[in-house]
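Re: the 760-residue chain
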Amino acid sequence: MQIPTTFRSAASGLLLWSACAASSLLPATLAADDPQIPSLAWTPRSDWLNVKDAGAAGDGKTDDTAAIQKALETIEAGSTLYLPPGNYRVTQTVRLNGPLIGVSVIGHGRDTTLVWDGEAGGKLFADDGVAYARYTGIQFDGRGKAAVGFHHDSHKRFETEVRHVHLAFRNFTDAAVLAEPRDRYALAETEFNNCLFEDCGRGVVFVSFNDYNYTFDGCEFRRCGVAIDCSHGNFYARNTHFVGSREVDIRSRPEHGSSVRRCTSVGSRQFLVHHNGVSPMTVQDCHVDGWTNPDGAVVLSSAPVVMFDCAFTGGPAGQPPVNIRAGNQRLVVSENRVTGAPHVIRPAHTGRVYAVPAGVRRGSLTSASQRFLRSEAEVPGRVFDAKTDFGAKGDGRSDDTAAIQRTIDAAREHGAGAIAYLPTGRYNIRETLHITGSDFYVGGTGFRTSLVWRGAEGGTMIHVRNPQGVTLENIAVGNHDAGQMKNAIDVLQTGSDRPSRMTYDGVFAYGMYQKRPEVKGFHFRGLTEHDTVVTPHVQGNLRFTDSARATVLLNCSYEGSIIVEGRDSRRGGLLGSMTRLATITTHGLYLRDNHSIVMSDFYVEQAMDGIVLEGQADQAPGRATIQGAKVDFTHGGKGQDGMVLDSRNYHGEVFFGPNQFYASLPRVPIRHTGEAELDLFLWANSFYRTHLEVESKGRLRVHRIANHGVAIDDKDKSLSHENRAEDNLPASEFHRLAPALDDLRRLGEVDLALNHSDAN
């Protein structure tokens, strides 16, 4: 077999294929010192559809287009399409057509490649209307000819909670991933985890007003024109490395608030250009080296921005890295630094800068060369199949309790990364399933592997205790879509008496759109200082009772409400949330008994109300640090809907912002009742055609700093940019914001320790 040679075009920076590659297609030569996506050593499952059974060869010579398309057309809701190791030659767009739900497409990581050999300007892969999907372990190579690698071309249904994991995209002339929906549809709540983008015109491009809550985590972008290109949506980029972007690493024109946290950049023209008058931004602990645009590494012309712990080195000599272009720009800064220039911010700026003194903690990153892409990843090994090995039916009629428990027990006894696997189906259970032990998985195919409770009213579906390196994944437990059930708890985890770590990844419980925060969902009771809980992806109500000693990190969690409660005074752990969505809820968060929480990216939409805070006189002060993208309320006709924050004797501090208050209701209230003292800091918020009304029947102190408003009408100037008197926190008290920055720093420390411990 003739191996194609490659050369690099000095003009474009793209990796091109020579003419001798026409008869033999293999991935382009890769730099030896650059991390690549991992090789995933899957053990195929009983219900996986093998693309080679449809006739695909994967030999780099055969045209596999028709075979792959044939396989895609066999996919139904809950199907998994499996691409074994190989190089699959594609000459026309292959398309996964919906409307579908719960689909997975899985390859072996760097050992499975789709290679374009069609006409210039083509699109390699497209989907249309596929929600709750997973695309895992595939390389897409455009060979400098294809325009688009993955086209989210939705005009059949709204795509949500779509996950891109361990994917690599190379050599696409326009975009590696293009979200370009039709009509009213969009791609929202989507994730890019451990994905690589090389030598593309643009990396990930999303252009719709409903392309919201894009999360980039552990990714790497090399030599793209624009790496992340957001227009009208919003995004959260964290733990991501950029190299040599020809135009800019992140072009940010979002509709709602966004954030860039713990990102690094080397040799790009610019790091961040952020422009939107109503959408705030947080830039935390980012390190940028060697940018080349004399206009600056960071250019701001927007709603309020918070920037802290950022380092800039090696830029144009003497040129400060941060350029403020808008006269009404508010910028809150702390502990940023630069070498090679006299200032971080250009002194001729016309905006307003607020400097917060150092806190107790510092940033976590060490240099701009720090990278997060993992070249190694664990996948389940030995497969214990509930249907083929233990006789489960999954037909929605039979009692599968005993068969599933035997499957779990077999995986636990084997350990070593074994999985208790439930193929797609509806599994009735009548008794609680128990998960305990070390080093194993329990899971299915995703949204269409459903556990359905058919036991006594008030029961618990799954009880987790003393888990040591255990993962529950890709399964729906008590989810509303599976039908009515009378259990009280979907997943219960109780406290451990030894060091434990439990991961919930792709678990769908009750809560979405139900407006019943006290019902079902995930319950965590009595978690101790021994317990660590990580949730790469969950959906549903989350309830934490007397668990404030534990370390809980919610990476991405969607829908339902969070309830935090319990009178146990032993606290000192961390309840931290990063990407969080709450829509069509009563309240997005209930923080009771003076508990504390830190939330970095909280999106609330179409909710009745926002946050309830409750406390008792004998409880120690609590602290809530909440940043977000949007708070939006739908009036339900009760006269009290739209309460941003309802404090009922909560004692302590609340730091709220940056966030965007949206225009659905013209005025949204804050209320504090009771005798407890509460300091509320409203900082760096954007009031988009809406205003706060503060009602206090207690001892509430409201501190305002760096907020910006867009007037409801021409006569309303109370929060417009013309009225800077809205600030009431004097510079001598800016240090009072330092605890909020320290909370966010701690959240970053825990994220790196639990999810990126090998970042270097």
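The chain is about 5% helix and 45% strand.
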